[in-house]
Design brief:
Layout lengths: L3 E3 L35 E3 L6 E4 L1 E4 L2 E4 L1 E2 L5 H6 L3 E6 L14 H10 L4 E6 L5 H10 L4 E5 L17 E4 L1 H10 L5 E6 L4 E4 L5
Parallel strand pairs: 1-2, 7-8, 8-9, 9-10
Antiparallel strand pairs: 3-12, 4-5, 4-11, 6-10, 7-11
Length: 202
């Protein structure tokens, strides 16, 4: 019988040091916990994957990963395989930002034609729930929130009035560049996952 035990996650050797700094007294970065530290066991651990699979949106020939704000993949469930319009919302997604021109006219045309559309909103100042409520009130069927700094932003939303996802700052910028002069663009929600290179992989 071979006994395999998880190496665990007991923090690091610098935990009790001032500002969690490593020193000669605490040289190790990680601690293996019991029972994996017993000599009779095979300790099993993992590292960050170099690649991961992500849901994705497609704009032209480019595919971009997104992170769903819900626990049940609401965005994918609602829109997988669909083509949708999106509108670049100026400012930070306040209710008044939807009234600015040419955004307001673009939204009015979409709503009058009963065309489903997504609000592309920048992160910042307002709660994510406020941004989502404003998007839904303007007629959006969903929201894409892009980060205002580099990296991934994880949204926590109790309100699931319409599906919402987050993307990185660079993806948001790419969507803005793909839109026309009125801020109107088109995307599709991929049915197949996208293989993404992890910045933390190794």
């Amino acid at each position: 019988i071979v006994v395999c035990c998880s190496a665990g996650n007991e923090g690091n050797m610098a935990y009790e040091e001032e500002q969690y700094a490593l020193s000669s007294g605490y040289p190790d970065y990680g601690v293996v916990c019991n029972p994996a530290s017993l000599p009779q066991c095979v300790s099993v651990a993992s590292v960050e994957n170099s690649y991961y699979l992500s849901d994705a949106i497609q704009v032209g020939r480019d595919a971009f990963p997104y992170t769903d704000a819900s626990d049940n993949d609401a965005f994918y469930q609602a829109f997988s395989g669909s083509s949708l319009a999106y509108v670049v919302i100026p400012g930070l997604g306040a209710d008044t930002d939807y009234l600015a021109e040419p955004t307001a006219s673009a939204i009015a045309r979409l709503n009058q034609a009963n065309t489903p559309w997504l609000a592309l909103v920048q992160r910042g100042e307002l709660y994510f729930s406020e941004k989502l409520a404003n998007a839904a009130a303007a007629g959006a069927c969903g929201m894409i929130c892009y980060n205002n700094v580099s990296g991934i932003v994880y949204m926590e939303l109790d309100d699931d009035t319409v599906p919402a996802v987050s993307v990185t700052q660079s993806v948001g910028q790419a969507l803005i560049e793909q839109a026309d002069s009125t801020g109107l663009g088109s995307l599709s929600v991929s049915e197949d996952p996208l293989l993404v290179s992890s910045e933390e992989g190794g």
